[in-house]
Structure formats: C-alpha cells, structure tokens
Amino acid sequence: MLSSTFRMRSLGFFTAWLAILPSAFGWNATGHRIIAAIAYERLNPKTRARVDELIKHHPDYVAFLRDAPTDPAARARAAFIVAAVWPDAIKGDPRFWDDTRIDRHPTPLLPGFPDMKRHTNWHYYDTPYAPDGAEPGHQDPPHALSELPRMIREINRVSDDTASYDLPWIEHIEGDLHQPLHCVSRFLKSQPKGDAGGNFVILGERSNLHSLWDDAAGRDVSDSYVTKYAAEAVAAHPRPKKIEKDPKKWIKEGFELAKSDVYTFGNETGSRDYPLRLPSGYEENARRVAQAQIAMAGYRLAAVLNYKLK
Ligand SMILES: [Zn+2]
Fold first, then answer.
1. CA dihedral of 194, 200, 201, 207, whole degrees rounded to 10
2. Do the beta carbons of residue 309 and residue 50 sit within 8 Å?
3. Cβ-count burial of 80 within 10 angstroms (0-12 exposed, 13-18 middle, 19+ buried)?
4. Cβ neighbours around 290 below 10 Å, total
5. d(CA 236, ligand 1 centre) in Å
6. Do the Cβ atoms of 58 and 83 come closer than 8 Å?
7. Measured in angstroms, how far is the CA atom of residue 127 from the centroid of ligand 1?
8. Is the pLDDT at 225 greater than 90, yes or no?
9. Predicted confidence (pLDDT) per residue in 133-143, tens digit
10. pTM for the full model?
11. 91 CA to middle of ligand 1, Å?
12. Would the N or C end of the chain have less CB density within 10 A of its end CB?
C-alpha cells in the first residue's frame, strides 16, 4: 500500500509549509509503474535474469509480490514494476525516518538495509530558474544528480545486497528525472526561497503544479491500465536510435521542458485564497509531454540496465 506524503525539503520551515500541502512526490505510482513496464520489456534476456535475481535479494521482496500473479515470468515482471515505487512507498513507512527533517527521529536498522533513511532529497535536482531576476537558490548534495550516477556506477561492482537496494532507487529516480518539475525550482522575487519544484504553485484546495504533473499519466495503478498506457506511449514515441544514458543530460532536458512547457503561465504562484488558473489547453499539453517523457524514461532505464548488468 502506497501512502501519501510530501516532497520534503531540507529546510525546516519548508517542511512545516509542506505539511499542509497535498501529496506530491514525483510521477505518482502509475507513472513509475508504466516506466518500469516499458523498460522491463526491453531488457536483454541476460540483464532481465540478473535483475530478477537481484530483486529477490531486496529485504522487501515479499511485499513486492503481494498482488503478483503466480506465473513465474509475470511474477518477476510485477516485482520489477512494484520496486520502482518503493522509494515513494517508504515515505509513509514507519520503519524508515526522514533524515532531512530538523526534528528527525532515527529508527532501528533492520536486516538487509544499508540504512533506514527515507532519502527524500534523492528524488530531484533543483536546477535554479529565476525568470524575474530573483536571487537563485542552490541545492546541496545528496540529491538526484549526486546519487543516481553513483548508484548506476556501482551497481555492477557491489554486493548483491547493496545492488538490490540500489535497483529500485535507480528505477525510481530515473523516472522522477523525466518529470520536468524534478529538475527545477523556480525563484521569484515574490517567492525568494523557491517553489520546491512547483509544490508552492497553488492550483486549488488539494492541487498544486507539481501534483498536476505527477498525475499527468493518470492515477490508475492496475496492470491493465499500465500495460495499455505503456503500449500507447511507445507507439506514439518510437525508440530513438541513440539513447542518452547520462542523468545530467536528462536533468538539462527536464529543465528546458520546465521553461518551455511547465512555467508557461507567467510569474504567478497562486495562493489558498486565489488559486492560479492555468491557461486553456495547459493540462492537455502536460499529458502530451508526460507521455513522451514516460516513453523516453522507459527506453533509457532499459538502456542503462542493459549496459550495466550484462
Ligand atoms: Zn520520487
């Protein structure tokens, strides 16, 4: 069961603000599942066998299989798909603790885990965007740009236990970085601390810019929906010949998309009392961009794993 939580920031007062905001944390479970489904289908037989083996070493492997089919191949695919959501799932799991909070409460180390941190700051890299000349902020590591390359580098050199911990994180962060708002924070004179990847751009009582983009591939987590969306996305966006495998380039693309397709409504932030009204056609375009990004994320995840786990 996936629980809702927030995109926590390292600054305490931000965390306090976020506690009153609706859930927002990267493509929702649907988006991450679709990306994993697209990638899994494109793993070479040897890589797929290696991935299937690694997942079995994960301490939460049994939980991955909760609703899995009995057929062995379908079961392995289901585990890979659920694993992609694990880094979000632990945000609401009491076994884990939020190392980015000032009022943090460490939990006991359990067998099989390197640590029990939620690592909420691994999910994004805030390229600063300052369209009205505000002073841009800066995100210190650890973040997606430090951690994802590290885990990709090490996955074929570390123990199976460490690799099994890294794998869901690689699946997950790779996906997150294809959601443009995981690659940016916008700084305005009226919002000098930044908008936390659109979390502080208010669209309504329970909605903000970040959550709109997280949900742009839908909210249905059923395998039939995931499989259908995956098929449609790859049909609409065939695999390019050259696949970019550098996370730094993925972030740069996400940042460009943020400028061209996300922050297209001007220097507004909305508020509780006066939520931002997006231009007509905005959501339709978000769904279009999301579909292309999700297809690309699937191809790239497969390419990275095929390259590293051969
Ligand atoms: Zn995430």
1. 160
2. yes
3. buried
4. 24
5. 25
6. yes
7. 16
8. yes
9. 999 999 999 99
10. 0.92
11. 10
12. N
Structure tokens at 261: 């397709």
SS3 content of the chain, % helix, strand, coil (to 5): 50, 5, 45
Separation of CA 5 and ligand 1 centre (Å): 11
**Confidence band of 28 (pLDDT split at 50, 70, 90):** confident
Query: How many angstroms does the Cα of residue 173 sit away from the middle of ligand 1?
Result: 6
| Ligand 1 centroid – CA 101 distance (Å) | 17
Q: Which of 170, 198, 155, 287 is nearest to 7 (CA)?
A: 198
Determine the distance separating the centroid of ligand 1 and the alpha carbon of 26, expressed in angstroms: 4
Q: Residue 183 Cα, ligand 1 centroid: separation in angstroms?
A: 12
Q: What is the mean pLDDT of residues 7-30?
A: 47
CA of 170 from ligand 1 middle (Å) equals 11
- Identity at 231, one-letter amino acid code: A
Question: Do 270 and 202 form a contact (C-beta atoms < 8 A)?
Answer: yes
pLDDT band with cut points at 50, 70 and 90 for residue 26: low
CA of 172 to the centre of ligand 1 (A): 6
Structure tokens at 203: 């669209």
Q: What pLDDT, in 10s, does the model give residues 164-210?
A: 999 999 999 999 999 999 999 999 999 999 999 999 999 999 999 99
What are the Cα distances from residue 90, in Å, to 70, 98, 117, 290?
A: 25, 10, 9, 24
Measured in Å, residue 298 CA sits from the centre of ligand 1 at: 15
Distance, in Å, from the CA atom of 219 to the CA atom of 31, rounded to the nearest integer, reads: 8
Q: Kindly list the structural domains of the chain, giving each domain's residue range(s) and its CATH number in brackets, ordered by start.
A: 12-308 (1.10.575.10)
Instruction: Say if CB 137 and CB 126 are below 8 A apart.
Output: yes
Kindly give the distance from the C-alpha atom of residue 41 to the centroid of ligand 1, in angstroms, as a whole number.
22
Tell how far the Cα of 269 is from the centroid of ligand 1, in angstroms: 23
Ligand 1 midpoint to CA 180 (Å): 12
Tokens of 140: 């210190």
